[in-house]
Amino acid sequence: MSQIAIETPANQRNTIPIIKELGPFIRKDQRLLEVASGYGAHCYALSKAFPSCTFQPSEIDLEKHDSIKAWQATLQSEFPKKKILPPLRLDMCQTRWPEQLGGSHFDWIIAINLIHIAPWEAVIGLFSGARSLGQNNGVILYGPFLTPFPSPYESLESAPSNLDFSKKLTEENPQWGVRSGLNVKNLAASFGFNLKEMIQMPSNNWIFIFKSI
Asked: All domains of the chain, ordered by start, with CATH?
């Protein structure tokens, strides 16, 4: 059976805005690890946008790996010199997940729409693992957040749509839910990551950019 590159409606909506905002942060020849790559459409688009960089996709659901490989093949047929590595299965709830990367350094760890549909232990694992993947690296999170927010947005109220969304997620799985921006900032700080930028995005989403201290 041939592999099919799948793109979800969410990918279609948010890919271009995400790339636009990440442009000032991603530099030439950097190495990026995407956690929870899903079907791989973001990794494909990011690799096209930042052609000198190397991208490592990962996805815990092995059924989605065929789509990631299809996007990888599409990219290499269009732009042979651009680099998407074969997908890995990484579980952020397993504290030793960085060992699967064989000591590789990554400048950025990117998680798009992950932390609200994963246990809090996965968020802990994300930052603890990221700390071991290199000096002066960073973590980029994209998705919805709730109050309390970090400064300078501490007076901002949660979007009603995000409150409703979080309630639905928690009903589906008690370990899921939209996270407080301040709680995520404090967790990141406990692993040596400072929140450098908070960027408001369409549909009540955010990009949080963390850099290691």
From this structure: 9-212 (3.40.50.150)
Q: At what angle are helices 120-131 and 181-190 packed, to 10 degrees?
A: 40
CA angle 178, 24, 155 (to 5 degrees): 40
| Contact predicate 202/13, CB 8 Å | yes
Q: What is the pLDDT of residue 134?
A: 83
Q: What is the pLDDT of residues 6-47, one digit of tens each?
A: 999 999 999 999 999 999 999 999 999 999 999 999 999 999
Tell me the C-alpha to C-alpha distance, in Å, between residue 118 and each of 23, 41, 63, 175. Answer: 27, 20, 18, 7
Q: Which residues, listed in sequence order, are joined to residue 206 by a DSSP beta bridge? A: 143, 200
Cβ proximity of 36 and 58 under 8 Å: yes
User: Which pLDDT band, with edges at 50, 70 and 90, does 83 fall under?
Assistant: confident
